[in-house]
Specification:
Number of domains: 1
Number of strands: 9
Structural class: alpha/beta
CATH class: Alpha Beta
Largest sheet: 7 strands, parallel
Distance between the termini: 25 Å
Order of helices and strands: HHHEHEEHHHEHHHEHEHEHEHEH
Strand content: 5-15%
Length: 321
């Protein structure tokens, strides 16, 4: 879950010289950042350094990152005309820098660990595009969704096509697995997810089905819609720290793998408490095949890197016994 970041001094050094978008758009730099965590932490896979908002710009939605505030959309979607004006694009051209970073990273990895690519899911991308940035209420997003459902579905159709093409291009460039991030879809109940989101997210996973790569479907606060996430697709379903792992897996179904998941804020406290919580996650998994131990969201910037290192070592020691 977002391995690279400000908790690492070498990443902060690069961010002192380059903006986040410069890092994402420069294959040499994106490769360098992707590899940084592997040199410090005993992880089992590398996660491509990129940002889930990158497909928005070729669609005509301009954005930048504001220090201390996160992404800011310059021209948020405010009307049906804005949706009509959105452009579909060829990711192998508009986002070739991402694909170049994948190829370069795989050369550097030389098969040492798999490389995971990713993209944002329709609800999460739509919410950024409509709200103009992050939101706690998703009021504008839901107002469009409830008020003009036909326009909402047109928007999600475009996003599903764009994300499908983008992930296929990543697979063709060489990633070993892909993750679909629906970070904010936990803001919806099961009925609304089924009506407004599920058909579009399912189209993405259906488009990936012909490729022999694992697909991870991740969201935050999705305890109420785990069954719907499973139905939408993914060979691996993410479950965050709010739902006990054994309960989440029961609801997802044991024929799917699960990515589950430690509260990242535990790494800010005493390390023995974090390791005890990790033991609880592992105990709930019960050594059943298909469990990917992970954090429930990204590593927070103030996290001591030695805590992350200790957690990875601890999980490996426990699971090798």
């Amino acid at each position: 879950m977002r391995q690279a970041g400000r908790y690492m001094s070498e990443y902060r050094a690069l961010r002192g010289r380059y903006s986040l978008l410069e890092l994402c758009r420069t294959p040499d730099l994106a490769t360098q950042v992707t590899l940084q965590p592997l040199r410090r932490i005993d992880v089992d896979a590398a996660i491509l350094f990129s940002d889930l908002l990158l497909p928005l710009e070729p669609m005509g939605i301009r954005f930048d990152f504001v220090a201390g505030e996160g992404p800011a959309i310059e021209n948020p979607i405010q009307s049906e005309a804005d949706i009509t004006a959105l452009r579909r694009f060829e990711p192998r051209e508009a986002l070739d820098h991402v694909l170049a970073a994948i190829r370069q990273t795989q050369t550097e990895l030389a098969g040492r660990v798999p490389l995971i690519g990713f993209a944002g899911a329709p609800f999460t991308l739509a919410s950024y595009a409509i709200e103009g940035g992050h939101s706690n209420t998703f009021a504008r997003t839901k107002a469009l969704m409830y008020g003009t459902p036909a326009a909402w579905h047109r928007l999600c159709d475009v996003l599903a096509d764009v994300v499908s093409d983008y992930l296929v291009a990543q697979i063709e460039a060489g990633v070993d697995a892909v993750q679909v991030f629906d970070s904010w879809v936990g803001a919806l109940n099961a009925r609304d997810y089924r009506e407004f989101i599920l058909p579009h997210t399912r189209r993405i996973f259906d488009a990936l089905a012909r490729y022999d790569v694992p697909t991870i479907h991740f969201g935050v606060g999705t305890g109420a819609i785990l069954g719907e996430l499973r139905e939408a697709g993914g060979t691996v379903i993410g479950a965050d720290w709010r739902t006990p792992l054994d309960d989440a897996w029961q609801r997802i179904g044991f024929d799917r793998a699960i990515q589950g998941n430690l509260d990242p804020t535990l790494l800010l406290g005493p390390i023995d408490r974090a390791l005890a919580a990790a033991d609880d996650v592992l105990a709930r998994a019960g050594a059943r095949p298909g469990h990917i131990f992970n954090l429930g969201h990204g590593i927070l910037p103030m996290t001591p890197v030695e805590h992350v290192q200790a957690l990875a070592r601890h999980v490996h020691e426990r699971t090798r016994q």
